[in-house]
Write a structure and sequence with these properties.
8 helices, alpha+beta, disordered N terminus, four-stranded antiparallel β-sheet, homopentamer
């Protein structure tokens, strides 16, 4: 069987081995009256039917600041050049030729929403394949820098949708009509981007204002792992460190210096984080708002601590106002209640009741009101209000941004 | 029915289907004696009338440091080439041709106030549409880097006005005359910039020194939200943190370390902020002045605190000068007055008068003058003078810059 | 003998000194009917056999962020142009000519997995050597920017494998067939990269989907010394510094400020290190995980210390819970045991037993339980658990990443 | 009168409206035997007389690091092409033609002291104006990157002098002779630089070694305001903050931490300032020397404070050496003298003498010598010596650099 | 005599003023049969003799990271084109013509060890001078980016040796032979680099593997002043500051915070220094090793101080181990000896002996051993061992690196 096939091949080839002479003759015949200036349709009222497909090789860069998407890939442009048709049998069965791209008419397709001056696709060294029915294939490989408006509200859990639009710049739909395209974007030697996943692609042909346009759309989702580790984690940590100031007792003499150093650490972390966060005034990322909130928390903690110190070091002679006495009393009740609850739980678990009595005495006993106690009470209330509000804010903010 | 339509089509097309041959003949006829070197007016004394419109696609970059505006868009240039006129009926009703841009004469319009070497507009692959009356349309898409002197005094509430000027470089108004333009700048596939809003555009044609120039003006307003959150807020916070040093009692032993750490935090925040602030010696932004003021406040707070500590730790044996005694007395009076006022307000609100007596005793009682009291008095006066002056400065500076 | 040789030379030269005229005639004869548009095989069904070798001059850049490899070197392309053959004797024995590259047909080989628009190899000033049998040598020197997906998990002990793929873009394997290549990559004037060692190279010819492709593979190993000194060492140091907080006695009054300053130093070191670490969400470097772990350690140390201070400064009146008493007792036992072990070792070494008694008394004597002792016990347990766990983590992480 | 003029115009125009045909004929006549390769003088021994003027549009960049000056502007080159002369009356009074720049011979003027490969001036789309006597005007607009050696000793009060030199590269003064130039540099659409003022310009034509060269010189003065606010002010502030350490009493327990934090703040400010300071080993800016001096001050302050603390905490049992006793005695005398002087001044002003006695007693009374007093004496001397020397250094350094 | 000369000149000129016609005729004669494709030797076996000289204008950049040297300058290429010879008398004594570079054959010399794609030297606007004997001069001015492997061990006292190699890429030594060159590198309009001094240059012609290559070598020495002030000084300062921790007495309560803040300052200085230090894994600069050593010192100081604090705050009840008692005793002896030595010196100088007795008593008296004394002893030993070892390391490291 294989021998048979070979034989046939041999026969065909031995009979009609088209030579370079044939090709040369064909080319000189074809290009004798050909001008690349004239749109190659016999009936000039008919538009050229252009097929445009996009094969993506890589997403090089997604810039939130410049709202820019940089992709590498190639277009496949196919059309019929009615003036480059021939009868293969006339040229020893030559049915395909390769011609440098500057020798023939080409559609002037350009990237419509680009960042740069329009450039011709391809290059002078490209060869275009033309078959005997005049159908031409052109595969210009290029880097495409397209504009893409981005919404970074949910950074780093965001999804972006970018269009890459091509249009035949100098011609109207009457002259060149983009007719077909592949469904979505094809991939060719694709290598994934380190930060973005492609979750969907689509393509769309539009005709409006006599313009014929093809639009390729890429939907990208950010891989958030890196940003969770390097932005969210440190910020959340620092936010919670802030509360520790209310754990440190006033007597340790380190409250203020601790608090301001955490504030400082916050500032230092900001120098790292601020280079990672995208900047825009259009939509503020939730994470940036969270940063501001933590900064405000830091300031409030410092203010509270400073006044607390003032109270703590007040002369014992100065009387404590009724308001403060009430606050201290409230705190003592709460602690006792909590202690009792814990106690009950513990006693139930451990089936022992011996500590019960003393603890309760403890709760009743303290009825002195000194400035010290006021300061300590502030610690108590500030800690719990910070702790609870911070957890609520943190959870609500991140669930809001990551849920989308 | 469809057959009928096809028939009609056939008939119409069979009668006047202009073919590529017609176009080829037309082109060869037109360009036979045509030289792109000669300005295409029959009467050479007449200037070419040139219409220039600007279609903006995006504002890519506004650089305060380099005083540069980078825009993307295209120009629409229209003129009449009197040598490319023909009678359509002679060429089977062909009334429009597309010609590569290098085949014909073009005006040498360039960006007058640019940052780069002059470059030819368009590219060799552009086709220009020419109708049978010789009117030519050229739509070169480009990136325009124009110079624009900026006033950043009111940063981040500033408004900038930038000109993009085009001129026909080698020709004078006698040869090429820019005649018409669209009103202002048109938008084409415009995507808004993340930092700047376009609030107005205009266009203007000028003739002076035989130069014919068209000027497009863009008025931009900065979106200040990002800068308020990332520059103004942290600075204002730090400015007010500074005052807390006067709240901390000397006995806490953390006054100095607090004060210098806030100063340090200020320095760290500066490393972030300084990369966001535009730099220029021509006009200092008010916000930069505010920074300097806050820095000075920090230094003053440190100096006061250091001397305060010295006073506080002075030997009790050293006598307190009369000056200081007076100051302490003044402070006591003010606090008592304030206390009384509060008291009255409180007593009126709560209808209780019991605390009245003791408080007043308190006010009268303290007549000892130790160095400790002097230090504490300094706290009092420094805090209130810092607090009030800082609020005044902050409000006046930001209202000044944002009002414009 | 030498004279003889010279004579022969003379004779040969005097007989056949080919002149520029001969070469000129040859060239005009050869190129008379030659068209660079036509693939130079007599039988057009035969593919051109193309040999491709790669000579590497340097590895300019390896970018983990952009997943890019930039190399400098040249390709050696060899093929047979069947239309450029001649009989040397016809042209006075001229058997080699040099022709500018744009005069003849060349294969349109391009870098398949590149970062840029396809560019023609070589340049208009290159001369190609053609011998009388039509074999052509082309040595285009270029900078190749190829995509290379990288796995930085084991940074800085990682090894990367990068492909540099070339393909004849416009032609299929039926027209141009890449046949041979050198084994691996050759080196030409190679200068080693400061960061990467080349440990292996290979080459591979593939034919699929009618595409004929040659793939050169470089295996690179990172020189880790720089990163060990500048990243790993400082991080490990800081990780261990963190534990010192449990060595400092509570009475020194510097526990908290030490701990938070170490945290701050960590943040500052991060600003240096973060610029050296490659960023990607695909695979997190183990070293980045280690950083996070150390950050968590810092936070935990702060939390423990804050609560410890609270316990330490608790009123002596408050009773110590049973749980804490047990913990303190446990610690005392462990220390005594350790002391005894040390003691025995010491006594064996020094042959003295005198201290034995007192020490043991010491161990037995302390049976008071104050809050101070609780705080001190926390120090003991926290230090040893941090110390051991940190060593385990450090050793396991680095052995994991460096072993590969 | 106007009508008359119009009439005349009409007459002239109606009689001789030169048409495109005339221009076309003229051009074809002129360029028939014209070769852009041949220098267009009839007598080849005569040099071409070339006028070169420089019109500056903006100073884009002045880089101290790279010693580079980047300017934008255009040159005006004028010469006489003796082969492009015609009698206007022969061509219907056509006396000016515009010719693309590549059609005619041009002098190969290049930027002699540039940073880049030589590039041809202008571009293929430039038209050159030629009048009937052969005089040619060429106005190539370009960005000029010229080398300029800079002396930054007096930064930020420095003045730089930069040359922009042009030379006809391939020709000697025998072939092309630069003859005239405008006086200095002209300005065209000039927009001032944000950092540099142009204080003077000049131009100079030189002939040496058969080279004909034209040199334009720009004298620039830095606008120092920005640098005063952002570099000098913070450094001076920090320098003086350093001294406060000697104001803080040892008992406050914050001396050392204050001192080292100021040192740290200095380091942080340096990270900002170091990006603003020009770097060069040729001439160190005085401001950099000042920074070093302040750094040394900081170190000395730390050393003094550390030893002072040691003295302060010395056992009271250790005897104070005679040397220290003398120093303490000296300080007491000085303070009493100062106190007395102040006192006298005060008493004279206030006409009161009552405080006199006590103060003097005070001065005499203290005759105990403890280690505490030694530490306090060190404070006194260190503060005043630092204060005075720092003022002297600051004033002398800035007056030295700003006076020039 | 001068008149005679002038006469002769006049005679010659009046007789033979060669005109543009002569030149035009000459050029058309010469280029009639000339093809730039053919190597211009009559005997094609003879190689073209090529002289290559290098004129340096500036050293633009020396990049240690990329191991790149960027220089600006021009090459002078001279060769004989045997086909461009004429008899001057035939053309009215025209003996020199200027021809655009693309009109004639040129050697394809390229930068062999470059960083970029090969580019043609010169540009299309260059004119080449050809005299009547066919000798051609070509002076292409260019920016040369050459690779240069660097050894930064002795940074900033290092010396680098860089080669700039040129080779005729497409031709072998049989076709083009580089014969002569200037001795070393010549300077043309040279402006010195701010960081590097050129201490020597040389040139060398090599023929190997049929390749003909010319190599220019530049020896550069770094100007170290800037780096001494900005890197070495701050590091040395910080290294010595570290030791001050052992001067501060434990009672001051600032030991730990001082030590860790110095460590922090070290980290901050590193952020500045790390941007100035060259990075490479091949050879670690001694200065980088010194940094690591200082970092280790900082860590050790922290560890010692932490344990010292623990000892200091130990219960007085705990007995001091014999080992510590011995250490304390040793220190006391050393201090007494030192004190005695100082005393003797002082007494000799001052001729007084009165203090002698007391001091000695002092030495003998202290025989109590408390934990405090242990801590203080650690200070003593740590300080001196740090001080001495640090001086030894600093001196040896810098002398090692600067001596070369």
């Amino acid at each position: 069987m294989r021998i048979l096939l070979l034989n046939i091949c041999f026969v065909i080839q031995s009979v009609t081995p088209q030579t370079n002479k044939n090709v040369l003759t064909l080319i000189s015949d074809l290009f004798d009256n050909y001008s690349p200036k004239v749109r190659p349709t016999v009936i000039q009222d008919d538009p050229i039917q252009l097929d445009v497909s996009f094969y993506l090789s890589s997403v090089n860069e997604v810039s939130e600041v410049n709202e820019k998407l940089v992709t590498t890939g190639f277009l496949m442009l196919s059309w019929t050049d009615e003036l480059l048709r021939w009868t293969p049998s006339d040229y020893n069965n030559t049915d395909t030729i390769f011609v440098p791209q500057n020798e023939i008419w080409k559609p002037d397709l350009v990237l419509k929403n680009g960042f740069k001056k329009f450039e011709e696709l391809g290059g002078s060294f490209y060869y275009l394949q033309i078959n005997h029915e005049g159908s031409v294939d052109w595969l210009p490989f290029n880097v495409f820098e397209s504009r893409c408006s981005m919404d970074i509200t949910n950074f780093p859990f965001d999804t972006q949708k970018c269009d890459i639009k091509f249009v035949t710049w100098s011609h109207f739909a009457d002259q060149i009509e983009i007719t077909k395209s592949t469904k979505g974007i094809q991939f060719y030697e694709f290598e994934a981007n380190g930060v973005w996943d492609i979750i969907d692609t689509s393509s769309d042909i539009k005709k409006e204002d006599r313009e014929s346009e093809v639009k390729f759309t890429i939907k990208l989702r950010r891989k958030s792992q890196y940003f969770i580790l390097n932005i969210i984690l440190p910020i959340v940590f620092l936010g919670f460190l802030n509360m520790l100031v209310f754990v440190i007792p006033v007597d340790a003499g380190e409250k203020m210096s601790f608090c301001v150093t955490v504030f400082l650490a916050f500032a230092v972390f900001l120098t790292i984080i601020s280079t990672l966060l995208p900047t825009s005034s259009d939509n503020t990322p939730i994470i940036a708002m969270y940063l501001i909130v933590q900064l405000v928390y830091g300031v409030i903690a410092l203010v509270i601590t400073a006044f607390q110190l003032r109270l703590h070091h007040r002369d014992e002679e100065e009387e404590i106002s009724k308001y403060w006495v009430m606050v201290v009393r409230l705190q003592r009740k709460m602690r006792c209640k909590k202690a009792r609850v814990t106690e009950i739980v513990v006693s139930e678990l451990t089936k022992k009741g011996s500590l019960d009595n003393e603890q309760q005495n403890n709760c009743r006993a303290q009825e002195k009101y000194e400035w010290k106690h006021v300061a300590s009470t502030i610690d108590f209330f500030a800690f719990w209000s910070f702790f609870i509000s911070n957890i609520v804010i943190t959870v609500s903010m991140f669930s809001a941004s990551s849920s989308q």
